[in-house]
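One chain shown below:
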Amino acid sequence: MLLLGLDVAGVFVSSGSACTSGAIEPSHVLLAMGVEPETAAATVRFSLGKETIATDIDFAVEQLQAVVKRLSSF
């Protein structure tokens, strides 16, 4: 629901790490870093590029807060 809520808000994120994009299993990289499997499976990845500016990050944070607040009310 978090990924969908962010997508609808115009924030494009992925689950897991880039090397496991689309995989069902938790990222082997996150697991090797010592992240618990349950946490690794619930990871959200925000990617930044050279065109990303501070207002883009501010927008993403605002939308993340709004989506989490909305989901917490269920």
Observations:
- Helices lie at 2-8, 28-32, 37-41, 54-72.
- The chain has one domain: 2-72.
- The mean pLDDT is 89.
